[in-house]
Structures are given as C-alpha cells and as structure tokens.
C-alpha cells in the first residue's frame, strides 16, 4: 500500500508534466491581462506543444529505442538525452515569448525553467539530484512569484502545492530513488530558479 501511494505522485508529478500544470494554471488565471483570449490560447497552446508534448514524445521514442530502459529514467546516464531535448524546447519557448512581446514574467519563468534543468543536467554527470523535487519546487516557486508580482495570494493553491511537494519527496524516499540530500537540493534548486531568479532578473 505504501508503495502504491508512492507511485501515484511519482507519475502524477513526473518532471515532464510540470510545465503542463503551470501552463494550465496560467490559462485559467487573469495574469495575461490585456491580451485577447485567442492570442492567449495560441501562445499557451504553442508553449504546451513545444515544452510538454514534444519532450514527452521524444521521451517515448527513447523508451521505444531502449535508450531509456526504465519508466522513470533511473540511470543518470540515460537521462541526459531527455534533458538535452527538453532544454532546447524551453529555450525555444523563452525566445518566442520574448520576441513576440509577451509579458516579461512569462519569459523569465521559462528562463528559470531552463536554468533549473541546465543545472540538473550538469549535476547529473556526477550526482543524482532529484528532478521530481526540482519540478514540484519550481511549480511552487512560480506560483509564489506570480502571487507577489500581481499582489494576489492564492493561499489554498500554495498550501496544496506545499503538501504535494512533501508527498513527492516522501514518495521518492519510499521508492529509494533518492537520498534526503538529493531531494532537498532539487527542491531548493526549483524554488531558487522559479522564485528568486525571476525576481532578481525582473526588477
């Protein structure tokens, strides 16, 4: 039963899915004030295609070709191919959002996501930092960043994401996928990349 409860957040908050949750939250929020609904839908839809769907398809292709041999890409050496493709996708979305003149915070968040994944990619060569913890920490950090930026505090959402963060890290420990230090390092990286880094570069 404990293992089952551990697998649920492992798959539900798979790192490749985290941007989808962020895009979904932006889609139902009022942060894109002043933009026509169609423009908002096109940009968020394109972001989903480039940063979520294509990396997922690339991951499935790597699985099909047996370049990645486990469902969670447990081997550090296997992860690098998925990381490189996803890094490229995040960079493209950040550049597109900047050049089409979308809100600076949107570009900053994608740059934060790029930075977080780049650090995970580099650390991955000599240490197994938790991408799950980085992802959920980044989502929480992004929500807090937008809350301060727009003076809107979605307290229930922040509490829910905090609880989910604890659930994810407990799950990775229960599955013996990471050590506490790997989880805390990943979570701290996610918070820094999506909360503090955007603040430093936005203002």
Features:
203 residues, globular
What would your notes on this structure say?
- The model has no long low-confidence stretch (mean pLDDT 87).
- The protein has helices at 2-12, 18-28, 37-64, 76-99, 104-123, 131-150, 155-174, 180-202.
- The relative contact order is 0.14.
- The protein is globular and about 45 Å long.
- 77% of the residues lie in helices and 0% in strands.
- The protein is mostly helical and 203 residues long.
- The protein has one domain.
Shape, please? globular
Classification by helices and strands: mainly alpha
**Number of beta strands:** 0
Strand and helix order: HHHHHHHH
The percent range for helix content is over 70%
Mean pLDDT: 87
Number of helices: 8
Strand residue content: under 5%
Radius of gyration: 16 Å
Instruction: Provide the number of structural domains.
Output: 1
What gap, in angstroms, lies between the N and C termini? 47 Å
In terms of per-residue confidence, which ranges show pLDDT below 50 for 5 or more consecutive residues?
none
- Give a quick account of the main beta sheet: strands, pairing sense, barrel closure: none
Topology summary:
Blueprint: H1 2-12, H2 18-28, H3 37-64, H4 76-99, H5 104-123, H6 131-150, H7 155-174, H8 180-202
Question: Short description, anyone?
Answer:
With 203 residues, the protein is an all-alpha fold. The protein has helices at residues 2-12, 18-28, 37-64, 76-99, 104-123, 131-150, 155-174, 180-202.
């Amino acid at each position: 039963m404990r293992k089952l409860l551990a697998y649920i957040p492992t798959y539900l908050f798979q790192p490749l899915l985290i941007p989808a949750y962020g895009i979904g939250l932006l889609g139902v929020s009022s942060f894109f004030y002043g933009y026509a609904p169609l423009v908002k839908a096109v940009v968020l839809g394109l972001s989903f295609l480039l940063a979520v769907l294509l990396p997922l398809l690339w991951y499935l292709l790597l699985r099909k070709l047996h370049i990645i041999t486990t469902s969670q890409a447990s081997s550090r050496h296997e992860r690098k191919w998925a990381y490189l493709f996803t890094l490229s996708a995040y960079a493209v979305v950040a550049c597109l959002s900047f050049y089409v003149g979308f809100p600076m915070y949107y570009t900053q968040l994608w740059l934060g996501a790029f930075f977080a994944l780049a650090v995970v990619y580099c650390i991955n060569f000599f240490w197994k930092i938790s991408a799950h913890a980085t992802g959920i920490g980044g989502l929480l950090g992004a929500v807090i960043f937008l809350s301060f930026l727009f003076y809107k505090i979605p307290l229930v959402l922040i509490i829910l994401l905090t609880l989910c963060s604890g659930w994810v890290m407990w799950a990775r420990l229960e599955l013996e996928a990471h050590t506490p230090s790997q989880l805390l390092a990943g979570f701290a990286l996610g918070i820094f990349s999506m909360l503090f880094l955007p603040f430093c570069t936005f203002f």
